[in-house]
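step: validate -> pass
step: tokenize input -> pass
step: predict -> running
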Amino acid sequence: MPVVAIFSAAVLLLGPAAAAPTADKPCSDPSCPVITPIRDDTLAVSAFGNDEQKQSPASKPAYHPQVGKPVTYILDPTVRIDPSGQVCVFVGEIPGEPGSITEQTNEAHTFELLGMYPLCQGSPRPPAQPTPGGAAALAFEQLVTLPQPTISIPPGYTVAGLRTYLVIGGPQRLDPEPIDALGYSVTLHITSTYDIDWGEDGPDRYATHVTSQGGRGYPDGDVFHVYTTKGTYPVTVTQRWTATYEIAGGENGTIADVLSTSATSSLPVRAYQAVVTS
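step: predict -> pass
step: emit ->
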């Protein structure tokens, strides 16, 4: 089951397949952005991405400067339409923490948008070159395809009161070839853990930060659950991906963002009762 990332609001990375709309000729392609007036000279643009990975909402923390610490600013790109009807990019600023994931993401969006649309008249000019962290974030979030986990629970059903053994398939680690992103050669080292939702209400429903794929499963696997009631339950495995990066001839670091892919399987749980016959 693919996980679809949805990007909306004024800060947006538009896919390269979307045709550029104008004020007098809106795009008819379903993948194109939706443009909504905000003011006479400003429009909000929203669209749906079609990749199979999504960002964890918790990875976008609000900016709270420390008391007495000078306020710092990060890029805040918006897509607008100028008075002539031309789509353009306005590069504003908002309070933010340098080196944060928000800075990395906004910077990557800025340079990606400027590769598609011109700078608006009156817009502040962006930096001459993106930071390595912004390039690494773009490579991780947009240029790498993360696989979905697979779920196996032999023999395809289980019995209430007995251990149900789960085996998770698919790679846990990725080391893609160097990626060219915003003028940098980025090498990513991507690792993952699993969150499991067994589907049955109770204190043991969720298992988080699981590092094992279950081993050989039944009868000696190390990822298992005991169901208490018969029924059919959706078992969901969410794979949480994190990454470190190396820049050719330069720095290295950790990407603060967390991406996820997931899969769900329906599991029948049966119940048996012993009957004594004479």
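step: describe -> The helical segments are 101-114, 132-143.
step: cleanup -> pass
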